[in-house]
């Protein structure tokens, strides 16, 4: 792990050379994927860092999404002064993510978890599109800080009671009283807001709408997965107490996903619509994680990786349209199939990936989550059926409204697509559909 971190830090010295940074980010992704095939629970231990299947999948996703986000931000490259700072903050965010997914200490995990908020906030404030980006940044900052302060207190209490902060330690909270339940809620709540859980998701659409394309891609592709990763790391401490609260989280995840899906059917801002997709998908992930079953954990990890690739690709597509017509409104930017016909295929394949059609990773993960939730309670079939139906409905709504109809813009002609853009979209689509052949790479061993 230390070699990987040093290699990423060395890239910061080449912040003015976009092609070099892009090339080596993908090279590091391939080398990491080839050299880290393993059959062990934990490996590459040292310097309070280590990896397992869970960390391996999310670190690989971090490299891939950050590399694609840099490739998608060519408008920033034109300004030489601001482009260096942009690359520096992207690489700094990547290092924070690598440390978050690899540290083996709860306190260091909390520090790196919160540290990733700083470069994200700077990306939104520095390279956002509208004046409202200040309000969006404050929403994200205060939602996260408000929820994470109780987690810090609980980590200190954990050290005073258990005597260690090593992740995976055998200590567990076995008492079902008010104090332990409050401890449990406080520890998990920070990750539920980051996931984000319904009722605490308002910061996400605001941050996505105001963020640059790289910020949206990294936020949807990797940063939302910090919530799921943190829940998986913290739940073993509260496995006894969690059994009494599974009904609450499963109900909130499914009902919240259904309500957000209904909101998607009346949304006209394309970036806000894709942001609400994340809330609906993460509701199902929350239910799968809280069941604490092997099916639920593995399916949630697969959906997180698949959603990271799919939502990142959709944000990239939305930005390509925005750069040409100058608006995010689907009422104005409709009829793209006649305006940009070569992009129609990419809209289609990423849309069916978003609704969980085979052979995408989303399909494999959702099947595993369905098995987990239906095995926990057959009553969940009603909510899951509505959630899957509405997922297909709002995806078809997005595709049909954006691709068909009469194009209202005064723009008569433009480039229907560049080779660079097709390559970026292909690199989103390939792992989303090909990794299902080697899905054992994403198999989570509890």
Explained architecture:
The chain is mostly helical and 446 residues long. It has one domain (1-441). 72% of the residues lie in helices and 2% in strands. The protein is built from 21 helices and two strands. A two-stranded antiparallel sheet has the order 1-2. Helix 18 (344-354) runs antiparallel to helix 20. The radius of gyration is 21 Å and the shape is globular.
Structural class: mainly alpha
Strand order of the largest sheet: 1-2
Topology pattern, helix = H, strand = E = HHEEHHHHHHHHHHHHHHHHHHH
Q: Tell me what portion of residues adopts beta-strand conformation.
A: under 5%
Instruction: Name the shape in a single word.
Output: globular
Radius of gyration: 21 Å
> Uncertain runs with pLDDT below 50, 5 residues or more?
none
- Give the domain tally: 1
Number of strands: 2
User: What's the end-to-end separation, in Å?
Assistant: 21 Å
Q: Major β-sheet, in short?
A: 2 strands, antiparallel
Average pLDDT number: 85
Number of helices: 21
* Percent range of helical residues: over 70%
Jot down its keywords:
single chain; 446 residues; mainly alpha; respiratory chain; NADH_UbQ_OxRdtase; NADH4_N; translocase
SSE diagram, text form:
Blueprint: H1 2-11, H2 18-35, E1 43-46, E2 49-51, H3 53-72, H4 74-77, H5 80-102, H6 106-115, H7 117-127, H8 133-162, H9 178-194, H10 203-210, H11 213-223, H12 225-234, H13 239-242, H14 246-264, H15 270-290, H16 294-325, H17 336-339, H18 344-354, H19 361-376, H20 380-403, H21 419-434
Helix pairs in contact: 1-2, 1-5, 2-3, 3-5, 3-11, 3-16, 5-6, 5-7, 6-8, 7-8, 8-9, 8-10, 9-12, 10-15, 11-16, 14-15, 14-20, 15-16, 15-19, 15-20, 16-18, 16-19, 16-21, 18-20, 18-21
């Amino acid at each position: 792990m230390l070699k990987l971190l040093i290699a990423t830090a060395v890239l910061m010295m080449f912040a003015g050379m976009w092609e070099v940074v892009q090339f080596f980010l993908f090279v590091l992704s391939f080398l990491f994927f080839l050299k880290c095939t393993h059959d062990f629970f934990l490996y590459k231990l040292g310097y309070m860092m280590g990896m397992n299947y869970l960390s391996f999948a999310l670190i690989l996703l971090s490299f891939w999404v950050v590399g694609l986000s840099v490739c998608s931000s060519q408008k920033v490259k034109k300004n030489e002064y601001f482009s260096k700072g942009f690359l520096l903050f992207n690489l700094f965010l990547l290092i924070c993510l690598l440390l978050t997914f690899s540290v083996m200490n709860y306190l260091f995990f909390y520090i790196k978890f919160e540290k990733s908020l700083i470069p994200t906030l700077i990306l939104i404030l520095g390279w956002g599109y509208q004046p409202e980006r200040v309000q969006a940044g404050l929403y994200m900052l205060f939602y996260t800080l408000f929820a994470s302060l109780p987690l810090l207190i609980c980590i200190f209490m954990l050290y005073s009671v258990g005597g260690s902060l090593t992740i995976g330690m055998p200590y567990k909270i076995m008492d079902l009283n008010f104090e332990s339940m409050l401890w449990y809620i406080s520890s998990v709540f920070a990750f539920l807001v980051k996931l984000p859980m319904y009722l605490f998701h308002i910061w996400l659409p605001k941050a996505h709408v105001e963020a640059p394309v790289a910020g949206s891609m990294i936020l949807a592709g990797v940063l939302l997965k910090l919530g799921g990763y943190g829940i998986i790391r913290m739940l073993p401490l509260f496995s006894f107490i969690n059994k009494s609260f599974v009904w609450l989280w499963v109900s909130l995840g499914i009902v919240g996903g259904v309500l957000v899906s209904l909101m998607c059917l009346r949304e006209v801002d394309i970036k806000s619509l894709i942001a609400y997709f994340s809330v609906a998908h993460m509701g199902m992930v929350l239910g799968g994680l809280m069941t604490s079953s092997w099916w639920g954990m593995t399916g949630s990890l697969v959906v997180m990786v698949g959603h990271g690739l799919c939502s990142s690709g959709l944000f990239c597509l939305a930005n390509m349209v925005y750069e040409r017509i100058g608006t995010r409104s689907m009422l104005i930017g409709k009829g793209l199939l006649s305006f940009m016909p070569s992009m129609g295929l990419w809209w289609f394949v990423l849309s069916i990936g978003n609704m969980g059609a085979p052979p995408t990773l989303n399909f494999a993960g959702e099947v595993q989550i369905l098995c987990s939730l239906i095995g926990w309670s057959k009553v969940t079939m009603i909510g899951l059926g509505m959630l899957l139906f509405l997922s297909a409905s709002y995806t078809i709504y997005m595709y049909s409204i954006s691709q068909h109809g009469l194009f209202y813009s005064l723009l008569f002609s433009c480039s229907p697509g560049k080779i660079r853009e097709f390559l970026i979209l292909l690199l989103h689509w390939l792992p989303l559909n090909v990794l299902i052949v080697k899905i054992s790479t994403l198999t989570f061993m509890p």
